[in-house]
Amino acid sequence: MNVAACYFSYLAISIALTIWVARTLHRNGRVFLVDAFHGNEELADSVNHLLVVGFYLINVGYIALALKTSEPLSTLRQAIELESVKIGVVLLILGGMHFFNILVFAKMRSRSGLAQAAPPPPRIA
């Protein structure tokens, strides 16, 4: 099995998945960010764009680092197994980053909701 063909296949699949996830999160995350930033659409769009850039940098950087292999690929099965492990790790990283971002913005939202809530009634002694 040609190692270069395995590398190109891994790069194509991993980068395509990263682009698809980034576009999906960018498009569907806007509403969530606008709500988290209390309707400030300009700030939400800016943060959304910065998140996508960071997302690309981290994921494409990992994809490049994980490209190298020292395993011999003498059969198609070995190549498929190697690619499945590498792509599986990329998918786990994409999912982990997604849930981390959701967690951070959910905490931001709940903190801002607490700040806007009415103060508690005075205690009667």
From TrEMBL:
<feature type="transmembrane region" description="Helical">
    <location>
        <begin position="7"/>
        <end position="26"/>
    </location>
</feature>
<feature type="transmembrane region" description="Helical">
    <location>
        <begin position="87"/>
        <end position="106"/>
    </location>
</feature>
<protein>
    <recommendedName>
        <fullName>Integral membrane protein</fullName>
    </recommendedName>
</protein>
<feature type="transmembrane region" description="Helical">
    <location>
        <begin position="47"/>
        <end position="67"/>
    </location>
</feature>
<keyword id="KW-1133">Transmembrane helix</keyword>
<keyword id="KW-0472">Membrane</keyword>
<keyword id="KW-0812">Transmembrane</keyword>
